[in-house]
Every structure is written in C-alpha cells, then in structure tokens.
Specification:
2 copies of one chain form a homodimer. By secondary structure, chain A is α/β, with parallel strands linked by helices. The first copy, chain A, is about 30% helix and about 20% strand.
Chain lengths: ~240, ~240
C-alpha cells in the first residue's frame, strides 16, 4: 500500500494533469494508460460520463482519491490525472526532424512539441544532457502534443548525425551563413536548436547550412520556443497550405 | 520606516529583478530609476563596479539590504533589484503596432514584447481587461524589452480604432479570410491578437483582413506568444533584412 510520490525521471510512468490533457492521452495513447485518478471535487455531468465511458471501454482502472493530486499538482482546478507508461518513439529516415541539443527547460520543450505537431514535424531528436521529456511539465506545456510526438534521446549529436546525417541539416545560430528568409528545404531536413542560455556550440557552423532568424540588434536573441516555431513555420510553408 | 511590500498594480514603481535586467533598465530608462538594491551575497568585482559607477554617474541611490529580495524575488541568484517609476508610452500614427486584446498572462506579454522589439514593432496597444504590463513578471519575461516598448492601455478596441483605425488592420483568428502566407502589408499596420484562452471575439472577422497562421488540425491553436511572433516575423520580413 505505497503512498503516492512525486514524479521522478526514473519512474516507469508519468502523468497527464487535468481533464483536457487526460482526454488527449486517452485518445492518442490509450494502450499506455495505466490508471485515471478522479478527485472528489470533480463535477458530475457529461464530461465525467464521457471520461468514465472511455475508461470502461478501454478497460482502464479508475481510482477515486485526492491524495495523488496533493502530490502531483500545484494547480487549482486539476481534478483528473491520467497515469501512463512511458513510451518509446522511433525516428524515420524519410521524415524531417526537430533536433534539440541540450534543452534545459521543460516548459520550452513542451511548447516546441506543440508547435512542431502543428507544423507536421512531430519527430524529435533530443541530445543529452537534456531535460526529461516525460516530466509532467513537458506533458502539460505540450497540450498533449507529446502523445503524438516521436522523440528519441541521443548521447551526442555525432550519434544522431551518424544515423540521420544524410539530409539537409540546418543548425540555428546567431553566427550563421544564411538567413531564414532564404532557406527553402528541398527534401528531408532537420532543424537543429541549441540550449536556452548558450545556443549551439560554434562547431555547428561547420554542419550543413547554418541559419539565423534576422532580428534587430535591440534584442540579444529570440526565446527558444519562439525561434524554433518561426523556423518550423518558415521551412514547412510550402508543405502546409492555408 | 515602512518595510518592503509585494508589488501591486497600484504602486507608482515597479522592479527589474536581477542584474542583467537592472543593466537594461539603467541603459534605457535611466531617468526613471529611483533606487538600486544590492544583496549581501552579491559578489565584489567588475560587474558590481560597473553597476556602482552607472548609479553614481546618474545620481541613483544604492541601498544595501536583503529584505526586499525576500519579498520580491522567489528566484535564487537574484542579488540586484532596480526600482523604477512607471512610465507612459505614446503610440504614433505612422508606426505599426501590436494590439493585445485582453491578454491575461504576464509571462506571455513580456515574451511578446521581446519578440516585438526584435522585429521593430515596439509600439503596443493593450485592450482592457488585461494583465498589468508593469508586473515584474512581464518585465522579466521581456528580458528588458519593456524599457524600449511604447505601450498604451485602451478601455476598448473601439477606442483604439477611433484613434488608429486608418491603417491596415490584421486580426489573427482561427476563422479567418486570409492565410499569413499571403499577407504582405504595404504600409503602416496593426497586428491584433486575442486572449490566450478565448482568442478574438468573432466580430473581429469584420475588421480589416482577418488572418490565420496555417497549421495542421492536430493542434487546436499555437500558443499566443508563438502565434504573435510568427506573425511579426512574417509581416516585417520585407523591412528587416538578414
């Protein structure tokens, strides 16, 4: 009868906090869901009925308890938590990727996943050291996009490049050869972004075509999820039509 | 001898938390700075010397105290706080604007100011009800961009439109006439964005040229600062060169 503990990176499961996120989880990762927790303040009604029906149909255990909410959720208005087994992704050679080199902020990673899914780039390589993609903060910031994202960790960029280097590689850095205005990928590509504070190491200037998003010198840089999203918007424009 | 209190919207002053932000404050809003607070754990050295010299040259009072840090800053590594009088901005008829209708999140507002400054759109109209732009969370998320931003509050969009409606107006909404891919402003313009949760009210579809940022139906929407930043990037491209 172990109590509920804070989420840790080593755990085999993670959590979708809140009902909207739990619905996303049930929709896209049904078979990974282990339990759904319901708080005593959850309102009766259509939404709960729908949730219960989904769990029943999928054979998912529903647990009524308030305890796990005190441990996992600091937010008010969180009355449903979906617990899920961590899942493995795979990257494909003929699919374009987003590559995050040493990302350190969970919220940023989730926000990038959300944009990436919006621009059809839901295959992501993450180069260690890096934040844990299953951290509930990533799940939340992704607004559920993580459940549709294929992500794979690599110990180094070299390891990634060995497997996937035969494509158009675009490292984004301030000291770059090309402007994003000029970049038009012709085939499969990878957009590569560095750490929030330090950006990409200078050796990335030797890899593929380095790119800068032009902006005035009144700011040092754009924030990471914004830079990544602008890059994804621009490079997928010819694929995603209005 | 009043003690230090939490920041409130009604206060005549606000705060730049941290040394980087305080340098930005001193650089761009010197005459608004009322005091600079220094924590006892602030390291001696070049950075502090530079800060002290700037304060001395500008006749700004330096206060050694740890108390205000306990009240204002939850972050570790915050050893300098710049206090400043709130300032008034003005919008110009011949300058393009960003218009935020009912923004509710301080971090988002600051992030938008940072991108806006990067894309030369540092004139911002804010339509009430709205978050307080001088909230230290906005200041921090803006990375100092707020000190170079001219922002003005309006009680309604009608009030803004009365003064500034004779320009290209682009309300961003999911149910829109045009795709961002097709939009090329010819003259002075305003980019209009709605609240984080609800977007723009449907009547904005009748104003100017409504615009959508095309994305897949796998996400409901892009997050607000990301949508705003992509829009600013695209509409200022012909002005900002690599």
């Amino acid at each position: 009868m172990a109590g509920y503990k804070r989420y840790r990176k080593e755990d085999p499961v993670s959590y979708a906090l809140g009902i909207t996120l739990t619905f996303e989880l049930l929709k896209y990762r049904t078979r990974q869901v282990t339990r759904v927790f319901i708080h005593s303040e959850m309102k009766q009604g259509e939404t709960l009925d729908k949730l219960m029906a989904l769990c029943r149909d999928a054979g998912i255990e529903v647990v009524y308890t308030n305890k796990i909410f005190n441990v996992l959720s600091q937010k008010e208005n969180c009355y449903v938590i979906g617990e899920f087994r961590k899942f493995k992704g795979t990257l494909e050679l003929d699919h374009s990727h987003v590559v995050l080199v040493n990302p350190s902020n969970a919220g940023n990673m989730g926000t990038i996943m959300r944009s990436a899914l919006g621009f059809g780039l839901q295959q992501m390589a993450i180069i260690r050291p890096a934040v844990d993609a299953f951290d509930p903060k990533v799940v939340r910031a992704s607004m559920g996009a993580i459940f549709s994202t294929n992500f794979v960790y690599f110990d180094s960029f070299a390891e990634y490049k060995e497997q996937f280097g035969a494509r158009e590689l675009y490292p984004f850095m301030l000291d770059a050869q090309s402007s994003l205005h000029q970049i038009r990928p012709q085939g499969t590509f990878s957009l590569i972004f560095g750490n929030e504070a330090t950006g990409l190491p200078s050796e990335f200037a030797q890899i593929g075509t380095s790119v800068i998003i032009p902006h005035s010198d009144r700011i040092d840089s754009l924030n990471l999820p914004i830079a990544a999203s602008i890059a994804m918007y621009e490079t997928t424009k010819h694929i995603i039509h209005a």
